[in-house]
């Protein structure tokens, strides 16, 4: 099978249907998009097989909105297809742009096939996991074992695969002074194999053959950063940068074959080194899209790593990273469940959007301004609709008060600064029109007593009372 990739089409001067869709979604000129794809600065990870199964293409790269990825997948400890499908649905519901199936347990082919069938967003994998799981060994693996699994996953419709081809024999001694050594799963597997065989990384040796498979299906390469730092102490060290330079060489090789590629990055980076890391990736990898994993900006946040990494992700996005891989609160502690997936996605939607506002992505701030207007107008329903997680916003809002009150339980009616501001500016507040300050105050008290009432209901009761007196 010989098929034409998005990159080859772009290089031939053709704007594909997928490019048109991406251009329209991003409010981007389609001819410019084509040029950026041809130059490798934008990718559309869209396996031909998945496209036929309902994939909606997205673009990642220079000038486009920052994308986020959510990792899902079963492990040997917990492997259930239904649970993984539920996670995919949550990914789509809360706005993850892609999902990676990182399953290492259960029936891997079945889980992957179900996920691809369910997902309209691109799906990524790390094929080395299946190679090791199926063969039950690291030491006895051959290059053919890798190629077979990669071919199988491409045939299934995987849109992009992490390939740990950049970690080389010469890099291994460079990790000596690290606190956490090699923390990438794929990287630690390749390190083990090379240490046992004293031979070059097989993924590096057969990289050309991997690209032939990818070209057939238009699978995008995600060059894995096997030597990413696993703690802030190890950030931006010689091992990481040496591998990054190899990833730059592999990027050029990939482009020569007309295959799309992005480059993965750390990991754990203190805030003051984030800009440097983005600049180095862009320089050594010739402008290829940068896919950062976090990064976590501190190591002391177990249970809250989605927050410490979203801080790093927002900064990386602002400095030019194109694609942010989420981290959940379970990072370093356990397999994320559906709730953790939701928490991680929202944290990263915030990071990506914050970066887009700062980067000046066209139209990015409009939603913020709309929500702010709704907030000032006390239009709660509109605020929920514009929120990244409307259900959570509504849940918190209606915990103490009904959606109709024009203040919230944070300050209460007398200290609501926005109501006071409106009054000072001579604006008629919703409250004044409908209930009146005094009544609203009583209404809040009624809430505290546990006698929950809608504003309208309260108003009509008060009116009835008033009428009775007359
Ligand atoms: S009560 Fe305070 S927090 Fe709530 S809407 Fe008014 S100003 Fe905002």
UniProtKB/TrEMBL annotation:
Transmembrane parts of this sequence: none
Keywords, ordered alphabetically: 4Fe-4S, Iron, Iron-sulfur, Lyase, Metal-binding, S-adenosyl-L-methionine, Thiamine biosynthesis, Zinc
Entry annotated with the keyword Metal-binding: yes
Required co-factors: [4Fe-4S] cluster
Cited Pfam families: ThiC_Rad_SAM
Molecular function GO terms recorded: 4 iron, 4 sulfur cluster binding; phosphomethylpyrimidine synthase activity; zinc ion binding
GO process terms (BP): thiamine biosynthetic process; thiamine diphosphate biosynthetic process
Pathway the protein takes part in: Cofactor biosynthesis; thiamine diphosphate biosynthesis
Cofactor comment text: Binds 1 [4Fe-4S] cluster per subunit. The cluster is coordinated with 3 cysteines and an exchangeable S-adenosyl-L-methionine.
Listed InterPro entries: ThiC, ThiC/Bza_core_dom, ThiC/BzaA/B
Catalysed reactions, semicolon-separated: 5-amino-1-(5-phospho-beta-D-ribosyl)imidazole + S-adenosyl-L-methionine = 4-amino-2-methyl-5-(phosphooxymethyl)pyrimidine + CO + 5'-deoxyadenosine + formate + L-methionine + 3 H(+)
EC number annotated for this UniProt entry: 4.1.99.17
Record-listed substrate binding positions: 71, 100, 129, 164, 184-186, 225-228, 264, 291
Residues annotated to bind [4Fe-4S] cluster: 408, 411, 416
Binding, Zn(2+): 268, 332
Function in brief: Catalyzes the synthesis of the hydroxymethylpyrimidine phosphate (HMP-P) moiety of thiamine from aminoimidazole ribotide (AIR) in a radical S-adenosyl-L-methionine (SAM)-dependent reaction.
Record family assignment: Belongs to the ThiC family.
PANTHER family recorded: PHOSPHOMETHYLPYRIMIDINE SYNTHASE, CHLOROPLASTIC, THIAMINE BIOSYNTHESIS PROTEIN THIC
HAMAP family associated with the record: ThiC
Protein name as annotated: Phosphomethylpyrimidine synthase
Organism: Candidatus Iainarchaeum sp
Gene that specifies this protein: thiC
């Amino acid at each position: 099978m010989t098929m034409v990739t998005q990159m080859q089409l772009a290089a031939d001067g053709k704007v594909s249907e997928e490019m048109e869709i991406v251009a329209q979604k991003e409010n981007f000129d389609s001819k410019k998009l084509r040029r950026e794809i041809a130059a490798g600065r934008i990718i559309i990870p869209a396996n031909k097989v998945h496209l036929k199964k309902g994939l909606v293409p997205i673009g990642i790269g220079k000038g486009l909105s920052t994308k986020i990825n959510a990792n899902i997948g079963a492990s040997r400890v917990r492997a259930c297809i239904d649970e993984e499908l539920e996670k995919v649905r949550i990914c789509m519901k809360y706005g993850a742009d892609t999902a990676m199936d990182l399953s290492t347990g259960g029936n891997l082919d079945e889980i992957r096939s179900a996920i691809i069938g369910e997902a309209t967003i691109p799906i990524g994998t790390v094929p080395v996991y299946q190679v090791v799981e199926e063969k039950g060994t690291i030491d006895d693996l051959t290059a053919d074992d890798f190629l077979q699994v990669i071919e199988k996953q491409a045939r299934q419709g995987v849109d992009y695969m992490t390939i740990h081809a950049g970690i080389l024999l010469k890099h291994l001694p460079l990790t000596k002074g690290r606190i956490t050594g090699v923390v990438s799963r794929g990287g630690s597997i390749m390190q083990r194999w090379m240490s046992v065989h004293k031979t070059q990384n097989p993924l590096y040796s057969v990289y050309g053959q991997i690209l032939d498979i990818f070209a057939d299906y238009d699978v995008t390469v995600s060059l894995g950063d096997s030597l990413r730092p696993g703690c802030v102490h190890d950030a931006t060290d010689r091992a990481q940068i040496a591998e990054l330079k190899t990833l730059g060489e592999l990027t050029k090789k990939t482009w020569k074959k007309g295959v799309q590629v992005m480059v993965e990055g750390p990991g754990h980076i203190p805030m003051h080194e984030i800009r440097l890391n983005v600049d180095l990736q862009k320089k050594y990898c010739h402008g290829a899209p940068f896919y950062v994993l976090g990064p976590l900006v501190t190591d002391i946040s177990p249970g809250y790593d989605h927050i410490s990494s979203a801080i790093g992700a927002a900064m990386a996005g602002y400095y030019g990273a194109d694609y942010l891989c989420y981290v959940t609160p379970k990072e370093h502690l356990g397999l994320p469940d559906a709730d953790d997936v939701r928490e991680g996605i929202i944290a990263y939607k915030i990071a990506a959007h914050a970066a887009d506002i700062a980067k000046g992505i066209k139209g990015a701030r409009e939603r913020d301004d709309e929500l702010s207007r709704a907030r000032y107008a006390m239009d709660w329903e509109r605020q929920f609709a514009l929120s990244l997680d409307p259900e959570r916003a509504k849940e918190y809002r209606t915990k103490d008060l009904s959606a109709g009150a024009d203040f919230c339980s944070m300050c209460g009616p007398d200290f609501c600064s926005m109501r006071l501001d409106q009054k000072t500016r001579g604006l008629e507040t919703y409250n004044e029109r409908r209930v009146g300050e005094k009544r609203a105050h009583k209404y809040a008290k009624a809430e505290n007593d546990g006698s929950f009432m809608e504003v309208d209901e309260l108003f009509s009761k008060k009116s009835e009372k008033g009428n009775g007196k007359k």
